[in-house]
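Support request from a user on the community tier.

User writes: "When I paste my structure tokens into the form, the page sometimes reloads and wipes my input. The last time it worked, I copied everything first. Here is what I submitted, just in case something in the input itself triggers the reload:"
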């Protein structure tokens, strides 16, 4: 009988998942320890776990063969050296956010293309100004979207952009989807493609290779009329370089849901820049179907694990995703 441990912190959601997993798969012994000390005892003879296994617990986890990461982009430090070296297979729930976050992207695309930030500012000032927009109108039927990171979110964003008539260029180091509506390239071609884009949309995770990849050099390579949209991870983009690029007219503006530092400091220049849209890391906030989607990923992989079948969404631990 395989043993599955729901790692702390245990809340009502995880207690419910543990009970549902045990009911759906009676061949499992399911434990939901409430404390870190109890978790260390339970993980010692566990075959699988959900959550984060800290180094002191991992050292005791002699039987651990599958670890289900709760997030597609885990917190910094989730993948520490001992976990990377450990034989355990790590999986994540990538794909469950695809529609929610892609809709957030399209909110930015549509608003920026029509000059909404300028008109919203005029509205706040009670100013009826038909000439409030100071940036060029972008006709999406002839615009180019460069999507960097074409996983579930990027794939759905590409589909929606194409539906609006946009030319779509995708970049991904390991493409998982067939994209008949997009021109696909590898990561090493990014710099040569930046000048073609009207919208540069990044969904890339934070890894050792992607940290700070969006910097002054890359912003300066974009069209002066282009927009940068980041819904991936904040640490992939140097926020000071981005603000400088907008201030100096190297790009037209941006749409951000994630930031290099969160919360973004109140004194940061981005707060006061025109043609900038910012949301405080809320693209999936209050999305009611996400907990059920996340549980379904756990359940499917638990079935596969018990049957000795390949697991879904296996992570390259050294690359963090």
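"...and here is what came back when it finally went through:"
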């Amino acid at each position: 009988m395989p043993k599955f441990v729901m790692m702390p912190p245990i809340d009502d959601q995880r207690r419910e998942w543990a009970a549902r997993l045990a009911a759906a798969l009676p061949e499992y012994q399911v434990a939901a320890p409430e404390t870190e000390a109890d978790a260390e005892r339970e993980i010692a003879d566990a075959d699988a776990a959900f959550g984060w296994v800290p180094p002191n617990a991992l050292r005791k986890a002699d039987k651990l063969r599958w670890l289900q990461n709760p997030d597609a982009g885990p917190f910094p430090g989730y993948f520490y050296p001992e976990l990377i070296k450990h034989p355990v297979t790590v999986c994540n729930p990538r794909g469950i956010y695809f529609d929610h976050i892609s809709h957030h992207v399209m909110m930015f695309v549509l608003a920026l293309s029509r000059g909404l930030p300028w008109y919203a500012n005029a509205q706040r000032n009670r100013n009826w100004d038909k000439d409030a927009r100071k940036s060029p109108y972008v006709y999406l039927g002839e615009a180019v979207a460069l999507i960097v990171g074409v996983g579930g979110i990027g794939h759905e964003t590409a589909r929606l952009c194409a539906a609006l008539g946009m030319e779509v260029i995708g970049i991904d180091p390991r493409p998982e989807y067939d994209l008949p509506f997009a021109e696909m390239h590898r990561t090493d071609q990014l710099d040569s493609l930046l000048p073609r884009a009207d919208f540069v949309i990044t969904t890339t995770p934070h890894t050792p290779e992607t940290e700070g990849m969006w910097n002054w050099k890359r912003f300066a390579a974009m069209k002066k009329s282009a927009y940068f949209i980041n819904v991936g991870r904040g640490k992939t983009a140097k926020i000071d370089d981005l603000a400088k690029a907008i201030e100096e007219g190297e790009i037209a503006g941006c749409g951000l849901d994630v930031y290099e530092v969160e919360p973004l400091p109140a004194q940061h220049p981005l707060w006061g820049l025109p043609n900038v849209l910012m949301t405080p890391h809320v693209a999936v906030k209050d999305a009611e179907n996400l907990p059920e989607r996340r549980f379904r990923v756990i359940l499917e992989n638990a079935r596969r694990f018990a049957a000795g079948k390949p697991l879904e969404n296996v992570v390259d631990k050294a690359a963090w995703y």
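Agent notes: The reload is a front-end session timeout and is unrelated to the input. The chain is about 35% helix and 15% strand. Residues 243 and 270 are 6 Å apart (CA to CA). Escalated to web team.
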